[in-house]
Amino acid sequence: MHAPAHRTGTIQSGDVALFYRAFGPGNCSTSNTPLLILHGSNYFDSYDWIDVASKLAAERQVVVFDSRGSGLSDWSAHKDYSLDAVFSDIINVSAHFGWAQPAIMGHSVSGRLAIFFAAFFPEHISQLIVADTAMGKGNPGQYNVSVGNAPKVFETVEGAMAYLAEKENPPRFSLDKARAELALKPVDGGFVLTRDPDQKNTQSQAPGAPMPRFTNVDSWDALSKVACPTTFVRGKRSDRNKPEHYQRIALDFPHIRVETIDSRHDLAFEAPDELVAVVKRVFVDRAA
To answer: From CA 277, how far away is CA 214, in angstroms rounded?
Structure first.
């Protein structure tokens, strides 16, 4: 499968090595604000952002990394998928590239993660772009102890594709066998997703680990604390596009920009050029 040229590597962050893809100049030769992209949690990883990141990197450095427990990043040895750990990952990736205040774009569940990060760590972000996220129930960061979950085993790659194709907003690997093969790994009896089945666990299982600092946070409350320029990008045909949420944004957060593109949930796959155009249009450059 051909992919635009980019650099890859790993960054140690706590108990995981994070796999990243870096696009654009590698020596900070541009003064434009860099962009860090956070992929969604449901069958997505950094691979799905190669096209969009490549196009945006014509003007700036762009990095997207596989979140802990997914893609080519490590599964957490301590099953720590708390907001505390995720926030540390974002800070460590930014520091690795020498970025003080990158812009951050989060897709799907990572849109809410990015909102929380902007609210709680304003010194580490210059601009927030929330890509097709739902603002209702099921916020990431709810305190949850769930370990020992068995991964779902698919007998064949085609079986995994058919299973995921039934979802309302199917991930792209349900349509593309080559992509599916990258999202699965062989085990006895078939294939499993390259995603830790304990990924919803937020309490580190390390001996004596404290309660996470950030638990049961609220998306709307966090959004009210975000001070940096903020844009919401919604898919016109996405099931995450909740009219009542955007009515509330218009009423309570009139300073937030809202852009709509003709897509379902997977904006980077179904409408990459529209998404790139929106990001370029709304980008606010400042010292990185």
So the answer is: 34
Asked if 137 contacts 219 with a C-beta cutoff of 8 angstroms, the reply is: no
Q: Which CATH superfamily is domain 7-146+214-282 in?
A: Alpha/Beta hydrolase fold, catalytic domain (3.40.50.1820)
- Cβ 33 vs Cβ 288: under 8 Å: yes
Please say whether the beta carbons of 62 and 29 come within 8 A: no
Rounded Cα gap, residues 260 and 140, in angstroms = 24
Is this structure's pTM higher than 0.90? yes
Q: Show Cβ contacts of residue 95 under 8 Å, excluding neighbours closer than 6 positions.
A: none
Q: Which residue matches tokens 């956070």? A: 38
- Residues β-bridged to residue 163: none
Q: Map residue 94 onto helix, strand or coil.
A: helix
Please tell me the predicted confidence (pLDDT) of residue 137: 59
Contact yes or no for 25/40 (Cβ under 8 A):
no
Domain segments of the chain as ranges: 7-146+214-282, 150-197
- Look up tokens 């209702």; give the residue: 136
Tell me if 61 sits within 8 A of 54, measured CB to CB. no
- Please name every residue paired with 16 in a beta bridge, in sequence order, or none if there are none: 13
What stretches in the chain show pLDDT beneath 70?
Answer: 1-3, 27-30, 137-139, 287-288
The answer to whether the beta carbons of residues 218 and 78 sit under 8 Å apart is no
- Per DSSP, the residues of 138-191 read --TT-------PPPPPBSSHHHHHHHHHTSSS--GGGT-HHHHHHSEEEETTEE
What does the alpha-carbon distance between residue 170 and residue 161 come to, in Å, rounded to a whole number?
9
